[in-house]
Amino acid sequence: MESNQYGHVTVLLAEAVEALGVEADGLYIDGTFGRGGHSAEILKALGPQGRLLGIDKDPRARRTAMERFSGDDRFLFRQGSFADMASFVAELQWPGVDGVLLDLGVSSPQLDEAERGFSFMQDGPLDMRMDPDSGQSASEWVNTAKEEEISKVLWDLGEERFARRMAKAIVAARQTQPITRTLQLAEIVAAANPRWEKGKNPATRAFQAIRIYINRELDDLAQGLEQAFGVLKPGGRLTVISFHSLEDRMVKQYMRDIVRGPKTPKWLPVVDDAPPKAKLVGKKIRAGETELAANVRARSAVMRVLEKC
Predict the structure, then answer these.
(1) What is the tens place of the pLDDT at every residue in 28-45?
(2) Which one in 87, 155, 206, 297 has a CA-CA gap of 20 to 30 Å to 245?
(3) CA-CA distance, 193 to 202, in Å (whole number)?
(4) What distance in Å separates the CA atoms of residue 287 and residue 12, rounded to the nearest whole number?
(5) How far apart are CA 144 and CA 150, in angstroms?
(6) Which helix (H) or strand (E) holds 165?
(7) pTM (whole model) above 0.90
């Protein structure tokens, strides 16, 4: 487990890098660079001819990448979404890659720094954008979206059972005063939640839903999975670590569909015995007891691995 001066403990560090099966002269992508924990471990396994491309939307991740690895000519960085990794690979004129790693969790500094606007525990501007220079902030959205839209986002992306009540409370509150602070929103949705879950902040699901919506996280994941598989060489591996059920469901379904191949109606005779495009590598992996004891944020992590045939 890695804990460093960048304030982030990387989840499933050894397991993820081992699952990639890093070859010394291979080409790899860390699609969610964050604070560089996985990248540092991959670079340890690469030889002089190996290359690693780090990708992240967050401008702070870019600064971290420059601080940690600017002197290492095996490492390259592109600020952007992993949903655009195919264009980055094309730009670099790589023939394909030997492995792609996606860690879908929000990094600890993003959650812990109040000014990023992700936390319902600390007061800060209600922003929630992974890239603060791009797109609509959470404050802009909650102050302008229709009640039905807010309710749908909280239900679909947060699986929040009191989505309608919370959406109604948000719309009522903004009539009095614009919602611009994280604790302001947390108090509004907490008051609209009549049944607080033991051990869980009543704003947890609402904040998760709004963050996912603002950053188009599920859209990016769907596109990113397609692009990752597309850039893999035969024998290359895709390793994905997800942190909530919506993400893991998408990853599990995508990998299963790739392995099974296209569905055909039951009444059609099977005429094409095409070889499989990919195979699953082992079963899903969760953090062990030692890691959980040291990092409670690892408790919901699920890792799945696919190998292209």
Answers:
(1) 999 999 999 999 999 999
(2) 87
(3) 7
(4) 6
(5) 10
(6) helix 163-176
(7) yes
